[in-house]
């Protein structure tokens, strides 16, 4: 096959490209330029698309012996990822920009261009697998599994995707990179949001969304406990950085329970008030055969987060998941990813949806979960 290897400049995508070559594919490497102003990128290996990363990707392609190009995706990235990030926070939601980048850039814009140029597939360094049935499955390294952030892919996109690292633990990938002579073998993993140069998310949002004085209030009594200069600086479940005037009467910490952008109001309360066991999403993306009605499943609410047995109801409006055990601090805007609970296919992704609401409901008993 003709394969386009997306090379971020990290160890994972470099080894993935090398494995694609070793598998006999005709491979071309590409690095995505995502910033309109590259000089604003942070230095060092804290992000996933810095100037240094571009140079590292080119050097890796030279060692592997494949053609290498840089594609300018800055405008598309800004529109589909950065602007979405602003809009979600402005509406009191907490987005996952890496998930949005996979959905809109790496497996939409890039894949569309790749297919138009005659490539058969795009290979990435994600830790996930494709089963013989074509379904997306967890990577074998549970600490690195990235099926959650890939669950936004459509079946058609998944059919044109390759994940060469899904069957390998991360430490063995690094060892392989050293054996192949790749200079990125010991390069640290990226963790920060790549388009926030200094890692200051609050400051980044304030620069765009501005400042507006608002109140932080006790959810139970309505008492004003503090003030802030923009509700977009908070997320549901947040504990630190609240700047409250005095501690709770019982001495326990307070958490953000809700955000109301219309009146710039942030409500706080005890951890118990964060308990949810019913989660609703908008229209889902189905990676497996679409289902209707109730079915048993396992759901994940955060990347690398806990997995919850649940009863999921699918209808024309979206998904409703009733958890068999409560979760805490679930924020609208995050993704709910549904996995098959069957023992044989328990790591297969069925669907995903963006969370609209999360609240407490009576637990539902369901056999087989």
Q: What's the alpha carbon Rg, rounded to whole Å?
A: 22 Å
The total of helices stands at 8
Shape from CA axes? globular
- What's the number of domains? 3
So, the CATH homologous superfamily of the largest domain? Answer: HUPs
Secondary structure: number of strands = 18
Nearest-integer average pLDDT: 90
In terms of DSSP E residues, the strand content is: 25-35%
| Major sheet details | 6 strands, antiparallel, barrel
CATH topology of the largest domain, by name, is Rossmann fold
Q: Order of SSEs, N→C?
A: EHEHEHHEEEHHEHHEEEEEEEEEEE
Structural class: alpha/beta
**CATH class term of the largest domain:** Alpha Beta
The CATH architecture classification of the largest domain is: 3-Layer(aba) Sandwich
Unreliable runs, pLDDT <50, ≥5 residues?
40-47, 363-369
Strand order, largest beta sheet = 12-16-15-14-17-18
Work out the helicity level: 10-25%
Termini separation comes to 40 Å
Catalytic activity: S-sulfanyl-L-cysteinyl-[protein] + uridine(34) in tRNA + AH2 + ATP = 2-thiouridine(34) in tRNA + L-cysteinyl-[protein] + A + AMP + diphosphate + H(+)
InterPro entries: MnmA-like, MnmA-like_C, MnmA-like_central, MnmA-like_central_sf, Rossmann-like_a/b/a_fold
GO cellular component, one term: cytoplasm
Region (Interaction with tRNA): 144-146
What are the SSEs and their pairings?
Blueprint: E1 2-6, H1 11-22, E2 26-33, H2 51-64, E3 68-72, H3 74-90, H4 97-116, E4 121-123, E5 128-130, E6 136-138, H5 147-150, H6 155-159, E7 161-162, H7 170-179, H8 201-209, E8 214-218, E9 224-228, E10 255-260, E11 265-269, E12 275-281, E13 285-286, E14 293-300, E15 307-315, E16 318-328, E17 335-339, E18 349-359
Parallel strand pairs: 1-2, 1-4, 2-3, 4-7, 8-11
Antiparallel strand pairs: 5-6, 8-9, 10-11, 12-16, 12-18, 13-18, 14-15, 14-17, 15-16, 17-18
Helix pairs in contact: 1-2, 1-7, 3-4
Catalytic activity: S-sulfanyl-L-cysteinyl-[protein] + uridine(34) in tRNA + AH2 + ATP = 2-thiouridine(34) in tRNA + L-cysteinyl-[protein] + A + AMP + diphosphate + H(+)
Enzyme class: transferase
Binding site for ATP: 6-13, 32, 125
């Amino acid at each position: 096959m003709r394969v386009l290897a997306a090379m971020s400049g990290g160890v994972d995508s470099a080894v993935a490209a090398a494995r694609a070559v070793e598998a006999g594919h005709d491979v071309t490497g590409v690095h995505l330029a995502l910033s309109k102003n590259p000089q604003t990128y942070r230095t060092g290996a804290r992000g996933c698309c810095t100037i240094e990363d571009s140079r590292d990707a080119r050097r890796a392609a030279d060692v592997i012996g494949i053609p290498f190009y840089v594609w300018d995706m800055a405008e598309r990235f800004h529109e589909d990822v950065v602007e979405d990030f602003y809009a979600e926070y402005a509406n009191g939601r907490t987005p996952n920009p890496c998930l949005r980048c996979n959905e809109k850039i790496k497996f939409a814009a890039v894949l569309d261009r790749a297919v138009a140029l005659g490539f058969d597939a795009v290979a990435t360094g994600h830790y996930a697998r494709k089963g013989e049935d074509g379904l997306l499955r967890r990577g074998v390294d549970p600490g690195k599994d990235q099926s959650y952030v890939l669950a936004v892919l459509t079946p058609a996109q998944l059919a044109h995707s390759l994940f060469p690292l899904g069957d390998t633990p991360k430490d063995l990938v690094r060892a392989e990179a050293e054996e192949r002579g790749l200079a990125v073998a010991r390069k640290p993993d990226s963790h920060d949001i790549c388009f926030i140069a200094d890692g200051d998310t609050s400051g980044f949002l304030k620069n765009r969304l501005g400042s507006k004085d608002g109140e932080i209030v006790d959810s139970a009594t309505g008492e004003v406990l503090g003030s802030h200069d923009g509700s977009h600086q908070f997320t549901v479940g947040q504990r630190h950085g609240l700047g409250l005037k005095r501690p709770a009467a019982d001495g326990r910490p307070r958490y953000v329970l809700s955000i109301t952008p219309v009146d710039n109001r942030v409500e706080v309360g005890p951890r118990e008030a964060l308990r949810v066991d019913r989660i609703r999403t908008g229209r889902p993306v189905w990676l497996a055969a679409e289902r209707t009605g109730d079915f048993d499943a396992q759901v994940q609410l955060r990347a690398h987060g806990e997995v919850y047995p649940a009863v999921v109801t699918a209808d024309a409006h979206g998904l409703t998941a009733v958890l068999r055990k409560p979760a805490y601090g679930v924020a609208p805007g995050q993704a709910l990813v549904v996995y098959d609970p069957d023992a044989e296919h328990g790591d297969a992704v069925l669907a995903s949806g963006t969370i609209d609401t999360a609240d407490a409901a009576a637990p539902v008993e369901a056999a087989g979960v």
